[in-house]
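On clarity, I found the account of how folds are encoded harder to follow than it need be. What matters is that the chain and its backbone geometry are given together, residue for residue. I therefore recommend that a typical entry be quoted early in the introduction. An entry of this sort, consisting of the sequence and the corresponding backbone structure tokens, reads as follows:
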Amino acid sequence: MTASLLRTAADLRARARAGRRAVVMTMGALHEGHATLIRTARRIAGPEGEVVVTVFVNPLQFGAGEDLDRYPRTLDADVELAGKSGADAVFAPSVDEVYPGGEPQVRISAGPMGERLEGAARPGHFDGMLTVVAKLLHFTRPDVALYGQKDAQQLALIRRMVRDLNFGVEIVGVPTVREEDGLALSSRNRYLSPAERRTALALSQALFAGRDRHAAQEALRARAREVPATRARAEALSAIGESRAAADAHAVATTAGGPAAVRAAARLVLDEAARLDPPLRLDYLALVDPSDFTEIGDDFTGEAVLAVAARVGSTRLIDNLPLTFGTFGDAS
């Protein structure tokens, strides 16, 4: 399948529409993570619908000293990959097309949630991101727009904007795509030297350590629920040698678990990576409520996000995993 390359909003408006339009927004340098988004969009749009991929490196979301100038731009390869993955069109406007009067004076504010984690590390980033997403939604007028869960805070803010400002578009999050060794796919991975890439693996390894600690803890909590409630049942279990196991499970489940244990397990991996050559320089490790990206407490129940951001050499990387607390089962 060959994707048409469109450069202007007028070209996009001139396309005949039939069925549902699904949009995947990117900054280019497409990889298998983007291909997964496009293939998912193709399934959602169906054979009668249309998939549009946007490619635009948005200057508003890059701060001073960030990598706007060196961000990879590979449009020809992007159009080829998009088409092979199921896209009908690639919309790749110029900066003048998106911001014809220069940087816009009126922008969308990300609010308090946009000032946490990534927002604190990159002031103004989310205002710039939401402003361009809003403009691209107006340009493309999709029925559904798809975004990767690797950028969990971005996804949460887009969902909030669409809901709060009545955009009338369905937002779909697509799970993070990882390389075989666990590293989350990112256009910035190409900046890493072999040694830096080995250090960068600590991001996903820390998340996996937190997830595994959580899964073990939840399993122990489930086991603790089986502790007998009556003396007769306790004596019966004791007769077959299970009382000690039940007591151990109860003790561990009630004294050493929850969010604090998840954070500690992940932190241990990151602390070790800080001593590598080259070292990992941690920006943040957070376990947050995805509704507002505030840190969760030890009594929290429900969905959460374990998120990490760090620098290796001159490259800044982010990653996250979803977890669920209070279900007495495995992490999601």
Q: What stands out?
A: Residues 251-255 have pLDDT under 50 and may be disordered. The chain has eleven helices and ten strands. Residues 133 and 330 are 35 Å apart (CA to CA).
